[in-house]
């Protein structure tokens, strides 16, 4: 099964979520069946892959064993929307917003100034801290965007630093128009879709555009998406966050992998997303951080749209790396069931990244697993704010917990 010294048996699993219904018994609860839940199970990890899945009573011998004590074991979370390359914070802006100031896109420029002034090592250290938080909270696959440089050199640098920690790098030079180009939007669009795209593309898999008042309109976004696709990048769109707009329809029309935020969708938008296959990625921590209305995920799910959940980790509106928090918010405030929310945070995120190898647990698949200090996945929503992640294995290697002595 594996070379000596490399296999690990995760035994006595009370609830195993595989996101693979094949081979599991039909359940009265269709949501639970879709999760591919197995009871009294065991899993063997070897060589960074899943080597065996089956009943605990039939578990093979392995080089090491962890007694899961009847706890739940899940696929690693997949975070398909995160802004990790930045410097500084916007705590004062957050406090002002919580005192009644409405959120607008202008705060992004504060982070742009701090990021441009930071050294590579300073940015790299902040990225490492945030990646550590993601991993310890159970996120084993994550996307990282640029978007806080907005010059040719700074966007290329941001993508290069992101590529040091993930294969899922997104070029977001179309975040906002920087202050020095405020009087010449056409000039910035030429820079964005020409030299900046060319400099960032070697480090990126995706391109993204923020389609919103204060950011980019549909015509500008169309140009960026066309040229990014021609450069070989996959497409993503920040869509319909602050109000109704063309973002979701634009994402679907361009075959984007995902339309993200989707807070304000019309019936036509929902139908279009469902028919196109573009994933609707919901970011509930952004609504929490801006005191905005939460999207109704039921409308999307009823229409047959694929829904993902992501953290939107960023210093302005969603400064969290906790996917369990996002799951709890989705259940309590976006009308998702616990099973739907967990699927959206794992298999849904994988779909938003067009990945078929992650987001589920299958033999020969990556050994990305999360052990909960709870008997069921339902506890992620049932016990909001409680750290229930007892262990994380990424490619079969256990993620070390944060030392209490670390600063």
Question: How would you portray this structure in words?
Answer:
This protein is globular. Strands 1, 2, 3, 4, 5, 14, 15 and 16 form an eight-stranded mixed beta sheet that branches. The protein contains 14 helices and 16 strands. The longest helix has 17 residues, at about 120-135. It has two domains: about 5-75 and about 360-400, Urease, subunit C, domain 1; about 80-350, Metal-dependent hydrolases (TIM Barrel). Helix content is about 35%, strand content about 20%.
Topology:
Blueprint: E1 7-16, H1 30-34, E2 38-46, E3 49-55, E4 64-67, E5 72-75, E6 77-79, H2 91-98, H3 108-117, H4 120-136, E7 139-145, H5 152-163, E8 168-174, H6 185-200, E9 206-211, H7 218-230, E10 234-239, H8 247-253, E11 258-261, H9 267-276, E12 279-282, H10 284-290, H11 297-303, E13 307-309, H12 323-333, H13 338-352, E14 369-372, H14 379-382, E15 389-394, E16 397-398
Parallel strand pairs: 1-4, 1-5, 6-7, 7-8, 8-9, 9-10, 10-11, 11-12, 12-13
Antiparallel strand pairs: 1-2, 2-3, 5-14, 14-15, 15-16
Quick overview of this protein structure:
The protein has 407 residues and is α/β, with parallel strands linked by helices. It contains 14 helices and 16 strands.
């Amino acid at each position: 099964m594996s070379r000596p010294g490399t296999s690990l048996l995760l035994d006595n699993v009370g609830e195993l979520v595989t996101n693979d219904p094949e081979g599991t018994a039909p359940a009265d609860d269709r949501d639970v069946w879709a999760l591919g839940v197995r009871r009294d199970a065991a899993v063997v990890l070897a060589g960074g892959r899943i080597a065996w899945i089956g009943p605990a009573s039939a578990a093979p011998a392995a080089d090491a064993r962890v007694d899961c004590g009847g706890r739940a074991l899940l696929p690693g979370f997949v975070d398909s929307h995160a802004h990790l390359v930045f410097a500084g914070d916007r705590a004062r802006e957050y406090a002002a917003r919580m005192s009644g100031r409405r959120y607008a896109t202008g705060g992004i420029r504060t982070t742009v100034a701090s990021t441009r002034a930071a050294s590579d090592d300073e940015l790299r250290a902040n990225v490492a801290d945030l990646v550590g938080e993601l991993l310890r909270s159970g996120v084993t696959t994550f996307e990282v965007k640029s978007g806080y440089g907005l010059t040719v050199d700074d966007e290329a640098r941001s993508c290069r630093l992101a590529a040091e920690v993930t294969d899922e790098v997104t070029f977001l030079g179309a975040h906002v128009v920087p202050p020095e180009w405020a009087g010449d939007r056409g000039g910035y669009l030429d820079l964005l879709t020409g030299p900046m795209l060319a400099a960032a593309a070697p480090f990126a898999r995706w391109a993204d555009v923020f389609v919103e008042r204060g950011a980019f309109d549909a015509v500008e976004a169309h140009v960026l998406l066309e040229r990014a696709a021609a450069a070989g990048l996959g497409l993503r769109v920040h869509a319909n966050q602050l109000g109704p707009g063309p973002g979701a329809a634009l994402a679907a029309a361009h075959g984007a992998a995902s339309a993200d935020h989707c807070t304000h969708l019309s019936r036509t938008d929902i139908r279009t997303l469902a028919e196109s296959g573009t994933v609707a990625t919901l970011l509930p921590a952004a609504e929490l951080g801006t005191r905005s209305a939460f999207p109704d995920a039921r409308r999307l799910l009823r229409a047959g749209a694929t829904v993902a959940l992501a953290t939107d980790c960023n210093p302005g509106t969603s400064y969290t790396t906790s996917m369990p928090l996002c799951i709890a918010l989705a259940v309590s405030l976006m009308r998702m069931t616990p099973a739907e929310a967990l699927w959206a945070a794992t298999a849904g995120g994988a779909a938003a990244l067009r990945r078929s190898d992650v987001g589920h647990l299958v033999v020969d698949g990556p050994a990305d697993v999360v052990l909960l200090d709870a008997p069921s996945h339902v506890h992620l929503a049932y016990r909001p704010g409680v750290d229930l992640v007892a262990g994380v294995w990424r490619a079969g290697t256990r993620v070390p917990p944060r030392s209490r002595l670390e600063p």
